[in-house]
Amino acid sequence: MIKYVYEIDYPVGQKRAYLEWVRSIADTLQAPGELKRLASYDNVFSATPQRVVEFSFDSLEDAGRYFDRKELSRIFQSELPAHGTNIHITVLALRGWDGPRRRGSVLSSCSRR
What we know:
The chain has helices at 15-30, 60-68, 70-83, and strands at residues 2-9, 35-42, 51-57, 85-93. The protein is of the alpha+beta class. It has a single domain (2-93), classed as Alpha-Beta Plaits (2-Layer Sandwich).
């Protein structure tokens, strides 16, 4: 599992405009078959980042095909910077937990899948 995590702030006073723009592109973002899951979160404390968006894929190759699509490239390279600020992207790969299982540990409830 590969996740692209976008951290985005709204331009001052433009949260509503950002959300309207997202509604206008939602179908385009969700249509490609390479995308397995799309989730977005608002920071409950209105701190930076104000919005986090996660794109999940089965592989790095699927992510590459998704972001290389002409219609998506336009959204991420020209439209997003016009609607958001302080945009940061992190790419993560899901790994199994290989550490020791300790009783009472925060991570002791993790299971290998």
